[in-house]
Amino acid sequence: MTATATVGLSDLRAFLHGLPGVDKVGVEGRAAALGTRSVKTGSKAKAIDLAIRMVDLTTLEGADTPGKVRALCAKGRRPDPADPGCPPVAAICVYPAMVPVAAAALAGSGVHLASVATAFPSGQAPLEVKLADTRAAVAAGADEVDMVISRGAFLAGDYTRVFDEIVAVREACGSAHLKVILETGELGTYDNVRRASWLAMLAGADFIKTSTGKVAVNATLPITLVMLEAVRDFRARHGRQVGVKPAGGIKTTKDAIKYLVLINETVGDDWLSPDWFRFGASSLLNDLLMQRTKLTTGHYSGPDYFTLD
Amino acid sequence: MPKSSKVAAPAQPAGTAESGASVRLSVRKTYKLYIGGKFPRSESGRTFVVDGDNVALASRKDARDAVVAARAAQPGWAGATAYNRGQVLYRVAEMVEARRAEFAALGVAAGELDAVIDRWVWYAGWADKIAQVTGGANPVAGPFFNISAPEPTGVVAVVAPPTLLGLVSVIAPAVVTGNTAVVLAADPQIAITLAEAFATSDVPGGVVNVLTGRYAETAPWLAAHADVNALDLTGVESAELAAELERAAAGTLKRVLRPPAGGADFTADPGLRPMTALLETKTVWHPKGF
Question: Which of A105, A252, A273, B8 is most buried as measured by Cβ atoms within 10 A of its Cβ?
């Protein structure tokens, strides 16, 4: 099956290069302007709880152990043990080898289990290896799969290969949700981010995700804005809603709230839900909890009162 | 304190105004906050006038930012060798010495300035000696080495007294042992001039942070802040406010230094108490006999 036959496009390359170019100055200016919004008191409390429910609590280290993953799962289920009103996170995100441990720790909690796959983070492996990686993760209990695209192939202009890989991984996922990591820090231009977003959505992605968190440039507001515009335009054209997940480098509540403002102003309420927007993060959660505690107790909290992870 | 004589504008060169040549305007100093090694304005944009100078009026968020800076600086400062901390503090004394004229213009008497520099050097010398005096090997009934060593408490919030001698007498004992400090200064010009001495010596940014303004407004936030480990109330004048701050500090089990009964005499020998009050003792049992 070729790419063009799947989506009924006469020429994938012509379509992607026919997308309007991104106005770099405009998109950065708009993201910066929206980043200055002040969200306070009651609205801030709601924003913090929403952001906690959107967190994909992530550990992707070579040093991950079953114990660390179990601790992370416990934290994801009950982020603030002192406050039963604190919502759980959206998902726990781990390497495939840790999926069985996490699946056991999360059973019955309603917290999703995401696994990176397809030779994360580089994606530089043969397709059969990537598919086996994906099938193993799903078989072990992951209900969300975070795949990486082959940036090498994308940058070389081999869009069909990237497309076909996403389609193949999509099939290997079965019922699991597929998040496609574009690794925007390696794509170089906003135009490429827009093209890669459309390519991933046309190939069947349920989510498009900015980054692996393993390169110098991770999620930024302007890049997320370009991706939000892409999912908005894609829904208008094809009638299917796709989620967005910025990942890497989002560390503070202030950052998270900027993203929520960006969603509200770009794609609206429909995306303001953990089903359609996620934060790939680890240290963000502690800051959200500290800010939440500040609002509930009236005094500033400190990192001594939350788990180190 | 007489301040009328402070930083007088230099006399205008004779004849320039009359002849229509350009008149030189002197550059006046804006007294800002000192947070994380930088001199930012108040986040709130507020200022107030003290003796004709515009001075930043610190807000709750400035206090929060100062605690973040102090917390970030604390492990590195405590992790530096005691000898190194002593050298850095000695350097501060050199910088204060070099600013004698500036402090004098702010109304600090020469005798007080001598005492200030001597006090600072005295504390600098304690950096690598306090552990010998307050720590040691303990005799125990068993095959163990038992060793006690003082450790810094962490981030200390200080309500400072108004004089320069009072100010250094609360800052130096806090930071010499490896704590970092958020100081609510009573006399803005003197405190920020001292901060300039910190900034031009080798004190890492964030080890001392100085907020100017009304401590009655900012101190309660620091007293209740869960990331502040100790509270020095030496400069609090109202017994009622001191009690209120101590109650707020109890919520997070902070160490609290009460204002000295009957007012502080900073000219007296301070003893070790100002340092030991902000230290915790760590005791290690180590088996011996192998």
Answer: A105
In single-letter form, the type of residue at position B97 comes to E
Burial per residue of A68-89, b for 16 or more beta-carbon CB atoms within 10 angstroms, e otherwise = bbbbbbebbbbbbeeeeebbbb
Compare CB distances from B224 to A299, A303, A304 and report the shortest one's residue. Answer: A299
Q: Which of B227, B248, B251 sits opposite A302 (nearest CB)?
A: B227
pLDDT in tens, chain B (290 residues): 444 444 444 555 554 555 667 899 988 889 999 999 999 999 999 999 999 999 999 999 999 999 999 999 999 999 999 999 999 999 999 999 999 999 999 999 999 999 999 999 999 999 999 999 999 999 999 999 999 999 999 999 999 999 999 999 999 999 999 999 999 999 999 999 999 999 999 999 999 999 999 999 999 999 999 999 999 999 999 999 999 999 999 999 999 999 998 888 999 999 999 999 999 999 999 998 76
* Residue B96 · residue B117 · CB < 8 Å: yes
Using only the alpha carbons of chain A, give its radius of gyration: 19
Q: Does B225 touch chain A (CB under 8 A)?
A: yes
- The predicted model scores a pTM of 0.89
Side chain identity, residue B257? L
Alpha carbons B30 and B56: distance in angstroms, whole number:
8
Per CB-CB distance under 8 Å, the chain A contacts of B224 are 298-300
- Displacement of CA A306 from its chain's centroid (Å): 24
Report the complex ipTM. Answer: 0.84
Which residues pair with residue B145 across a beta bridge? B286
A63 touching B (Cβ < 8 Å): no
Question: What domains can you pick out in chain A, each with its CATH number?
Answer: 3-299 (3.20.20.70)
Domains, in order of start, for chain B: 31-287 (3.40.605.10)
Q: Which two tokens stand for residue A150?
A: 């082959």
Q: Which of A255, A262, A261, A244 is nearest to A287 (CA)?
A: A255
Q: Which two tokens stand for residue A168?
A: 């193949």
Helix (H), strand (E) at residue B230: strand B230-232
Cβ of B67 under 8 Å from any chain A Cβ?
A: yes
CA atoms of B12 and B26, how far apart (whole Å): 10
